[in-house]
Amino acid sequence: MSQPNQSLSILRKDALDIFKAGVTAADPYLAVKQCLRIENDQLKLSLDTENNKAFRSKNWSKIHLIAFGKAACAMARAALEIIPSHLLAEDSIVISNYNNITPINGLEVMGAGHPLPDESGLLAAKKCADCASNAKQNELVLVLISGGGSALIPYPVNAISLQDKITTTDLLLSCGATIHEINCVRKHLSQLKGGGLTKLSAPADLHAIILSDVLDNDLSVVASGPTVEDNTTFNDAINIFNTYGLWDKVPDAVKEHLEKGQKGLTPETPKTTDSIFKNTSHVLIGSNTISIDATVKTAIKLSYSTHVYNRQLCGEAKQVAEDWVKHISIFCNKGFDKPLAFIAGGETTVTLQGNGKGGRNQELCLAFAIAAEKHEFNQHWVFLSGGTDGQDGPTDAAGGLIDKNSLKRMIFANQDPESLLANNDSYTALKSSNDLLMTGATGTNVADLQILLIHPQLDSNTHT
């Protein structure tokens, strides 16, 4: 018989391998290479990555490349290897967060702030706008979009300062608003989001290659939908602030702009019927769903009886953890004789009530460990929750990797797990138990992955 910590070590290694498979499945470089090709000196754009039979092509005289998001550098590098140099416009631009910046010969690469916008992002956004505006008829604007784009290219309407937008974004990030709600507001404060980039590009053609970091792959939400129509309204944006009791805290300039839009004094974002979209197309090359499928395949290869717990995991991280432990406890009480894997993907939220350090994945892990002890979940388990981009909140960790002994290690390190959770200080808790998931920037972003592994017995020789 092996010792309990040996059994847990195997589970921890397997959880890491399964997580890495999910991240690899969202490799932006390979995905872009598969949907672009050159034939007779013309660029062919794949419109369907499933069967690779539907293409769009035209004798474009110039190609303006705009890439933004956490995977922008990898995507742009792949595109640059395919697009003939004489077709590439000189104003092409690549923007990513500072941790993911890599130089690319022949392209201007800029770093910008994430999750909160900064002045560098504003400068980068203006270069995006200039690049799109410079495009002429019979030219192509090729847009490479990945998660994080909303924060990286802040270009507020003239009536709003960048600081106003930063304050507004911070309010939404701190109150537990969903990504759909946050981006609804962003689209109504921006010159690029909510179809704004397409509006600037017209009458040139536009094609977007998109790596999705949202659960339902709603392209109007990825990076706040700069190339697609927006069906939300100014009224929706105002209602979001009222729902969370934030309206009185919103900067006056933002309030005034939204109220003018509500009254019809400011134009709405472009809608489905707008003629600017007649020359546009897009293709989805990666998503959380694709990564979940990859983790499932890997777990099966590792001989786990594998189950998808939730493909759109969302809600307050503390409550999600509690619900998951309750569900798994009932499942395991029925008995099992083979290692189990429960896979999920999505993005939980955190409503800040303290002043600690952490992110939604770290908070989910800490809450899971506390809930497991509370509900006397005594199986030999390991739980991983991590951001596929390698960054969880304003920390250097991707998330957490905990096990049934994590709380004991925290207490041994003179930490109080419940007090730390109440203070939203999951980083301190997980650091004390050596349970931080540290991957570094991955160069991709398709939301979060969660992996729960459970072993029925201590004998590690039963698992291969």
Tally of separate domains:
2
The amount of beta strand, in percent, is: 15-25%
Mean pLDDT: 93
Task: Kindly report the CATH topology of the largest domain.
Answer: Rossmann fold
**Fraction of helical residues:** 25-40%
CA distance, first residue to last residue: 15 Å
Strand ordering within the main sheet: 6-5-4-7-8-9
Sheet having the most strands: 6 strands, parallel
Rg (CA only): 23 Å
CATH architecture of the largest domain: 3-Layer(aba) Sandwich
Provide the fold topology.
Elements: H1 4-24, H2 28-35, E1 36-39, E2 42-46, E3 55-57, E4 63-68, H3 72-80, E5 93-97, E6 108-112, H4 119-134, E7 140-145, H5 149-152, H6 162-174, H7 179-187, H8 196-201, E8 205-211, H9 234-243, H10 252-262, E9 280-286, H11 288-301, E10 305-313, H12 317-333, E11 340-346, H13 360-374, E12 380-387, E13 399-403, H14 406-412, H15 417-422, H16 426-432, E14 436-437, E15 448-455
Parallel strand pairs: 4-5, 4-7, 5-6, 7-8, 8-9, 10-11
Antiparallel strand pairs: 1-2, 2-3, 11-15, 12-13, 12-15, 13-14
